[in-house]
Every structure is written in structure tokens, then in C-alpha cells.
Specification:
The protein folds into 2 domains: 139 residues, ATPase, nucleotide binding domain (Nucleotidyltransferase, domain 5), CATH 3.30.420.40; 90 residues, Nucleotidyltransferase, domain 5. Helices cover 36% and strands 27% of the residues. The protein contains 8 helices and 11 strands. Strands 6, 7, 8, 9, 10 and 11 form a 6-stranded mixed β-sheet that branches. Strands 3-2-1-4-5 form a 5-stranded mixed β-sheet, with helices on both faces.
Length: 232
């Protein structure tokens, strides 16, 4: 089965084609919030590079977040529309899982964190398991200072990965027994998305396009601002 992966949860957006052979074609672009403008040409480009017609795609995989609200809406709406047009199922994967999966060969406690803006982080904890990583708890939203204090109390050797740690580098650099992963692993990867989605496809963990929903750990900024103005 050929899977198209769409990742627009953070400032770096991408798409990829994958199958049992692995990643067939990949496009990554870090142009801020211009996801809607760049996504369709990028999908067309990877199809041309892999010499694959849209009709050959058997499933659509989408990064469900948490992440940037506008980017998530673009990616999920595109994935739903393509799945409906091609009459194929969809597979949703969380952005924090994708970030952790990229460093799955580490034996240390993996802490994945994505910048949530508004001086907050989305984060989760993982352990290596055969073939990937296993999340140890719920996805969380909190301040960088609170997460740093939590990590400082742990006795585990830790690998910190994600753009959340890159943004607050100085705060986490002094945490004992914690090493920060290279900046090249800072964002979810469309390559990781199609790899994880392929495993889900083998287990037939599909979803109807209409049921695909983003992972929101807080209200969108526009809604927060509206409530604040009304409360004022």
C-alpha cells in the first residue's frame, strides 16, 4: 500500500510518500505559516518524483497535532478532502509521537516537546520498544519552567527532543542527566509519519475521513482572545 503523509502541525511542513519499501519521496519546507500555499505543490512534486499517480495512493496519513492551529487545520482539511476524493481511509498520528519516533534508537527516557507559543510547551514522555517508542502518559501542556523542574527531579538519563527545547535551550541546558537532541530532529517529520502510518495500516487502524479531528490541548488563540475581551 502506498501512503501519502501530510504534516503541517509546526512551522516546518512536509509531505511524503511511503510503502513497505520505506519512504519513496519527501518534501520539507520551513516557511512559517504558508502551509496552505505550499502544500498542494509539494504533494504534486513528490508524486512526480516517485512517478506515482494519485490513484495509486491507498491511504492518507495526517499529523493530528498538538501544534499550530492554522497549520493543523490546513493539513487535516487537505487530508480529508483527498481521502474523500480518492475514496481511501485515513490514519492519524500525533505530532509528539512523530518527534519521539525520530530518536527511537535511544535507550534513554525520551522527552518530546513542541513549542505551543504563549510561553507554553506541548510534551510527552516515551521509552524505546522494539520497532519504535511507547508513550508513557498523556500529552501535556505546561510552562517550560514547570517541565524543567519536573525533569530536574528525575533520576533517568534523558534525551530531550523537539523545537520546544530548542526555543528554551538555556532553561533546559542545565538539567542534570539530560541531553538535547540535534536541531535536525526539532520538528515532526513526514518521513516518520508514513513509517508509523504503514505500521498502523498493517494493523488496519484506519479512520473514516469525517472522524479525523485535531488534538487540541487548549483553545485556539482567537477564541481565547474573544473570551478575554468579553470577560473584560
Amino acid at each position: 500500500m502506498i501512503i501519502l503523509g501530510i504534516d503541517t502541525a509546526t512551522s516546518q511542513a512536509g509531505c511524503a510518500l511511503g510503502s513497505y519499501e520505506g519512504v519513496l519521496a519527501l518534501s520539507q519546507c520551513a516557511k512559517g505559516r504558508r502551509h496552505a500555499e505550499n502544500l498542494t505543490p509539494a504533494i504534486r512534486f513528490i508524486c512526480e518524483q516517485a512517478q506515482i499517480e494519485l490513484g495509486e495512493i491507498g491511504a492518507i496519513a495526517v499529523d493530528l497535532g498538538p501544534g499550530l492551529f492554522t497549520g493543523l487545520r490546513v493539513g487535516i482539511a487537505t487530508g480529508k478532502a483527498m481521502a474523500h476524493a480518492l475514496r481511501v481511509p485515513v490514519i492519524g498520528v500525533a505530532s509528539l509521537d512523530l518527534v519521539a519516533f525520530a530518536v527511537r534508537y535511544s535507550s534513554r527516557l525520551i522527552v518530546s516537546a513542541i513549542d505551543a507559543r504563549r510561553s507554553e510547551l506541548y510534551y510527552a514522555f516515551y521509552r524505546q520498544v522494539p520497532g519504535g517508542v511507547q508513550r508513557l502518559g498523556d500529552y501535556q501542556l505546561g510552562s517550560p519552567a514547570d517541565l524543567a523542574a519536573d525533569l530536574a527531579e528525575r533520576r533517568d538519563e534523558m534525551l530531550l527532543v523537539g523545537d520546544g527545547f530548542q526555543r528554551y535551550h538555556d532553561l533546559f541546558a542545565g538539567v542534570d542527566k539530560a541531553e538535547m537532541a540535534d536541531a535536525g530532529f526539532a520538528h515532526p517529520s513526514a518521513a516518520s509519519l508514513v513509517q508509523l502510518a504503514h505500521a498502523k495500516a498493517l494493523r488496519e487502524e484506519f479512520e473514516p475521513p469525517a472522524s479525523l479531528e485535531p488534538i487540541y490541548l487548549r483553545k485556539p488563540d482567537a477564541e481565547i482572545n474573544w473570551v478575554t475581551r468579553n470577560d473584560g
